[in-house]
TrEMBL record:
Keyword presence, tRNA-binding: no
Protein name stated in the entry: D-glycerate dehydrogenase
InterPro entries, alphabetized: D-isomer_2-hydroxyacid_DH, D-isomer_2_OHA_DH_cat_dom, D-isomer_DH_CS, D-isomer_DH_CS1, D-isomer_DH_NAD-bd, NAD(P)-bd_dom_sf
PANTHER family linked to this entry: 2-HYDROXYACID DEHYDROGENASE-RELATED, GLYOXYLATE REDUCTASE_HYDROXYPYRUVATE REDUCTASE
Oxidoreductase is among the record's keywords: yes
Species in which this protein is naturally found: Trichocoleus desertorum GB2-A4
Gene3D superfamilies: NAD(P)-binding Rossmann-like Domain
D-isomer specific 2-hydroxyacid dehydrogenase catalytic domain mapped to chain residues: 5-319
Residue ranges occupied by any D-isomer specific 2-hydroxyacid dehydrogenase NAD-binding domain in the UniProt entry: 109-287
Keywords associated with the record: Oxidoreductase
Signal sequence extent: none
Protein family per UniProt: Belongs to the D-isomer specific 2-hydroxyacid dehydrogenase family.
């Protein structure tokens, strides 16, 4: 074949189109390749298809500056040093759009589950504690008609607003960029400051990228501003929330509950104090994990990879400056 590629994990789709033009190595193990192994392998390939568990830093990219493409099967790309890739004119692909609804659906499931104590209720039942119908058993807040605060109003944040509209919620959002007035009106979403959102929301849901600006965006000061009845949901990236501060807030009932699909670090250490809390739900980074969505993500990552190998513009490129 013309090209050599490495795929860092078996993918939930077929590889025929890629096989036609490339010799493919698929990393077969459950754990991702160790950093040194990946850096070694990268030297012998033309294209890399990676996951968010692969650390693609400057040194790894410098190990093969002739790499034609880095294609990530995820929408987020905080694991990749984009500036280093751009400096070597290596295009980086990602998979936006196809996972927007799946991720918003999981976020909504967590919001509902945390509010109405679904996971606690399941534990309670299995532990044989259900003895009768009780007027005050496992009470939570209303979801319908409550105030939702959306932090980061990109595709997924907006998809949350669409869902919230159906529940008759008041919708607040904050973002570095204000949305167009027609979109705000269509979604019924009000642009507010981060502080106002923290103070007024019954549910706060995070949909920003992870960057230097958003690292530990949620820490003691933010939890102190939130209502004691408030629930935090994070399906974006773990390090946006300071885990020690979250533990303090939840154990002191500074806020009522939280639901996380992402943690810092991942996976969450089995001795993390967070795992002892009843008012916290944690799922293992499954926001985009519908069968249809994962296949679409894999197909999109392969399309980006093939375009990069052929020297064509990637259909979904993170750093289009490389074409400038
Ligand atoms: C998953 O977290 C993604 O970024 O696609
Ligand atoms: C990611 O897809 C986002 O824009 O929220």
């Amino acid at each position: 074949s013309q090209f050599k590629v490495l795929i860092t994990r078996p993918l939930p789709t077929t590889l025929e189109k890629l096989e036609a033009i490339a010799e493919i190595e698929v990393w077969p193990e459950r754990q991702p390749p160790a950093y040194d192994v990946l850096r070694e392998k990268v030297q012998a390939i033309d294209g890399l298809l990676c996951l968010l568990t692969d650390q693609i830093d400057q040194a790894l990219i410098a190990a093969n500056p002739a790499l034609k493409v880095i294609s990530q099967m995820a929408v987020g790309f905080d694991n990749i040093d984009i500036a280093a890739a751009t400096a070597h004119k290596i295009p980086v692909g990602h998979t936006p759009g196809v996972l927007t609804d799946a991720t918003a659906d999981l976020t909504w499931a967590l919001l509902m589950a945390a509010a109405r104590r679904v996971v606690e209720g399941d534990r309670f039942t299995r532990q044989g504690k259900w003895q009768t119908w009780e007027p005050d058993l496992l009470l939570g807040p209303n979801v319908s008609g409550a105030t939702l605060g959306i932090v980061g109003f990109g595709r997924i944040g907006q998809a949350m607003a669409r869902r919230a509209k159906g529940f008759g919620m008041r919708i607040l959002y904050t973002d570095p960029h204000r949305a167009a007035p027609e979109l705000e009106q269509d979604l019924g979403a009000d642009f507010v400051s981060f502080d106002q959102l923290l103070q007024e929301a019954d549910f706060v849901t995070i949909h920003t990228v992870l960057s230097a600006e958003t690292h530990h965006l949620f820490s003691d000061r933010q939890f102190e501003q939130m209502q004691r009845s408030a629930i935090l949901i994070n399906t974006a990236r773990g390090p946006i929330v300071d885990p020690a501060a979250l533990y303090r807030a939840l154990s002191a009932e500074q806020i009522a509950g939280a639901a996380l699909d992402v943690t810092d670090p991942e996976p969450i250490p089995t001795d993390s104090p967070l795992l002892t809390l009843e008012n916290l739900i944690i799922t293992p980074h499954i926001g985009s994990a519908s069968r249809q969505t994962r296949k679409q993500m894999a197909d999109m990552a392969i399309a980006n990879l093939i375009a990069g190998l052929k020297g064509d513009r990637l259909p979904h490129c993170v750093n289009p400056e490389v074409y400038g």
